[in-house]
């Protein structure tokens, strides 16, 4: 699939692709501009630019093209009552499509299979060899199973071996959040997984446009009406993943338990004493007796507990990726030391012998 076709298919899955995502898909700004100019002139795509939000939707010619060439991947999104088939102009509905689109594109760039031709059906009964599957499924691929989860803010489900994640996208501010609905969403995913013989606990991945949004989510009290996102007890872990290129490594670690363990074990060699119990926040202490905390996964619940502990102890070492340091420094303060992990070097280390 060439880049032009990939763009058209991703617009199909998205319903409306945010304008800034086109360059992420195609590559260079000049080539992106040339491709979009041609697609608009030839009647494949239409530009929407209302209420301060710009996006691309398929015209009839574009829909016919992708259905004829990539029907297996696009048919369920471009036929029937699907929201991506009947794209509305209301801003709330458009932003819902933008959230889902940003997740589609991010996981595609990370190397997670997203197209139907590349992955098995969600919640399928499979032999043992299917347990290691890594794939992302948009909400349209499973919400038809029950009306109980239609109001969930979930964009989709990420399966990664024995791990499962409900994926959300908050854009640039706190998203709407109905605790009862999201608890139902988690229960649905775990029940369907167990029916297929897979005892899988689901955690949450919350995405956002910027790294800085992390601080707002951590401090959120739910807003005046209590209907905005705040950390609660629905999921044991809420992993925050900013929608920037550097953060692709976070998804790699969440989706691959072997690489996750490999990095953990390697980092443990960076300090003198690696003692850890089940309910201990620190992974050990350094040569001076200062506790060491691994924060690079950006687990919201863990970060809250770490701040409470470091405020009490007034010391600690924080291991995080370089792009995470400024916002963690803002949240945890300067009473602790920060050990920056270089993303490029970690990728080289994790990809050795592969």
Automatic annotation (TrEMBL):
Protein name as it appears in the record: Uncharacterized protein
């Amino acid at each position: 699939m060439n880049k032009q076709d990939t763009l058209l298919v991703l617009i199909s899955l998205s319903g409306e692709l945010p304008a800034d995502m086109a360059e992420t898909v195609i590559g260079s700004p000049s080539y992106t501009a040339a491709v979009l100019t041609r697609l608009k002139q030839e009647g494949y795509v239409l530009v929407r630019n209302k209420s301060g939000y710009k996006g691309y939707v398929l015209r009839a010619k574009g829909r016919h093209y992708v259905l004829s060439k990539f029907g297996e991947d696009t048919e369920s999104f471009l036929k029937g009552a699907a929201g991506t088939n009947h794209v509305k102009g209301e801003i709330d509905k458009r932003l819902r499509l933008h959230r889902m689109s940003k997740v589609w594109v991010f996981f595609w760039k990370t190397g997670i299979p997203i197209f139907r031709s590349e992955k098995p059906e969600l919640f399928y009964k499979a032999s043992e060899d299917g347990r290691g599957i890594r794939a992302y499924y948009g909400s349209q691929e499973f919400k038809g199973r029950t009306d109980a989860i239609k109001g969930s803010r979930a964009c989709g489900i990420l399966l990664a071996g024995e791990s499962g994640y409900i994926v959300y996208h908050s854009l640039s501010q706190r998203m709407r959040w109905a605790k009862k609905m999201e608890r139902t969403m988690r229960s649905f995913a775990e029940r369907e997984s167990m029916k297929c013989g897979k005892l899988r606990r689901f955690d949450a991945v919350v995405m956002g446009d910027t790294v800085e949004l992390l601080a707002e989510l951590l401090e959120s009290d739910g807003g005046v009406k209590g209907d905005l996102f705040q950390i609660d007890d629905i999921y044991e872990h809420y992993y925050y993943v900013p929608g920037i290129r550097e953060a692709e490594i976070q998804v790699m670690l969440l989706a691959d338990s072997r690489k996750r363990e490999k990095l953990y074990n390697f980092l443990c060699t960076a300090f003198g004493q690696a003692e850890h119990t089940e309910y201990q926040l620190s992974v050990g202490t350094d040569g001076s007796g200062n506790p060491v905390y691994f924060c690079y996964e950006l687990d919201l619940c863990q970060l809250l507990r770490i701040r409470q502990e470091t405020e009490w102890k007034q010391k600690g070492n924080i291991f995080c990726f370089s792009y995470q340091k400024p916002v963690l420094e803002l949240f945890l303060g300067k009473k602790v030391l920060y050990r920056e992990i270089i993303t490029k070097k970690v990728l080289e280390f994790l990809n050795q012998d592969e």
